[in-house]
């Protein structure tokens, strides 16, 4: 996989749900592949925070990719 997930290159295929400066959340609209496993993800969370808590719900899995300056979390249903 690439060293860094480029959300700007895939932006036209995702819907921005939230961006508060520290945390960005996208919904995958067109099968963008997960930077960790390669499968299409449902939601993508990008954060520069050292720790983050989130609820993924039932029957869901998540993948985590650590980049130099941020954490990339993808949820899959």
UniProtKB/TrEMBL annotation:
Keywords: Cell projection, Cilium, Flagellum. Pfam families: DUF7385. This is Flagella cluster protein.
């Amino acid at each position: 996989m690439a060293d860094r997930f480029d959300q700007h290159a895939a932006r036209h295929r995702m819907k921005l749900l939230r961006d508060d400066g520290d945390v960005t959340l996208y919904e995958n609209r067109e099968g963008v592949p997960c930077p960790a496993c390669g499968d299409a993800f449902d939601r993508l969370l990008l954060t520069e925070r050292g720790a983050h808590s989130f609820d993924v719900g039932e029957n869901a899995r998540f993948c985590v990719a650590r980049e130099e300056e941020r954490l990339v979390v993808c949820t899959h249903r």
